[in-house]
Amino acid sequence: MAELLSGAPVAAGLCARVSTGVTRLREQGVIPTVAIVRVGERPADLSYERGFVKRAQSLGIEVKRVLLPETVGEEELRSALEEINEDVHIHGCLLFRPLPQRLNTPAVLGTLRPEKDIDAMTSASMGGLMVQGTPGFPPCTATACIELLEHYQVKLLGKHVVMVGAGTTVGMPTAILMMNRGATVSVCNIYTDPQRMIELCRGSDIIISAAGKAGLIGGDHVAPGQVVIDVGLSLGADGKLHGDVDFEAADPVVAAITPVPGGVGAVTSTVLAAHTVQAALRAYGLDGI
Fold first, then answer.
1. Regarding beta strands 184-188 and 160-164, do their DSSP bridges make them parallel or antiparallel, or are they unpaired?
2. Of 16, 137, 219, 228, which cross-links 249 as Cys (Cβ 3.0–4.6 Å)?
């Protein structure tokens, strides 16, 4: 049976670092504050918002909600982001996506200043993955993968990582973060030959899957000694949440695996809080957490 890489202790350790940063800020009279911008009332957005607000407030981070109707115009939405840009008391911003298709998403996201972009929504933040030292932050889920691997002391230097999924939210940025830490990375996408993907996965040290397809990674994909990070999340016919990895098939074979739920997802909202505090520290010229 594999070691279970639970996200709970990772989130707890990160919360302790965030709390230290909040204390330092409040000693300077600064209240770290994040703005949540939501268009409409999609159930998934509402659920994530509730969870994040609870986590942020428990850490001493204030939350300002900017709630806009589904019918909001592009100029009104961009104006709301401009106000956040100019408000020195707001240090980070989370805009729920996807936006309505009628809106020009790149133009809207480009309105936000990268130093307040805590989830890599802007092109400047994404570019910062490859150009170290630029403002902005990596995507929270990609960062959560790194936090989890570091917590469990999984070495990346010289390791072969297979990234299943090449999306701009998780797959691509996670692959870049892995390469930045000295890993050799193979990226599989929807066009990868299934047999070739099996061969790549079986020959790797670490598998990270973020395809959002339940059971995509089965027993044929895994080998002894591997670490498996399951980022995928989809609702099954049984009404339960499932990851990309067939847990029952992989668990007896691999060395370590994340559960779904309770793995990477348990860390993501805490990373968002950490980025907010980090943005506030930067704004006042203080060292990071």
1. parallel
2. 219
